[in-house]
Input
Amino acid sequence: ISFFIASGEPPPCSEITERRDDGRPTGWFSGRAVEVWGCGALGSWIAELLVRAGVRSIRIRDYTPVTSGLLVRQNFTNADIGAPKAQVLADRLRLIGPDVDVSVSATVFGIGNDGLVPDCELVIDATASAQVTALLDSFVTEAPPELNFAQVATDNSSATLGIVALTSSMCRPSEVDRQVRDHVLNAPTLEGYRTLWDPDDQLLTPARGCSTPTFRGSAADVMGVASSAVSLLGGLLRSPRPGAQLFALPHSPVATQRLVYVSVEPAG
Output
């Protein structure tokens, strides 16, 4: 032992044969090809977690630049200000996973000339955009059955609630959202989750002149939601079917039921 300490060389060790995260829900992502649409408060952290989970390839789609106010809770640094989000996040992901094929696109919708990642098995929409959902509706039913789509979002008032909605060619995302919303609105015990479908009056305009209001929540909150969403999604993908997982962080002031799964019937 003293020889290795004195020489500054690490002691010999056997080859690593078992990952530290072996057996955890995120194991589903290992060796998979995925896309992340939108790399903001949730998407930027989700992308990093997927690379750490061992994805084979990942494509990041976002057309917006990094601005100083985003550093409060998004996965960027001061040196990234002014640069395209997708590009600087991709550079970070390559440092974390040198063997991962990382690519970028300014087409946030994923429907265009560059298409999807070859052999892509999962698209994660973290944009919280109604326009993206509408485009997904027109695209999902034409997609191959093995391609899964997940939408991840949080609440406007605290960023301590989360929803992971999963679907495929079996059911449009808007139909999944409608059925889950109706279930929540009709279940008194799930009252706290109704805020996920509230109007935008809880949104925050963080600075004068900001054109896009945003939700309230800290970096700790959004990291917690992103981490929970990735783990829960990994579990859902083991037996994928249309539905949504609702969840609340332990410190959430909004809901007391921490984990609720809502199944969805495929339309038509």
Remarks:
- The mean pLDDT is 86.
- The longest helix spans residues 219-236.
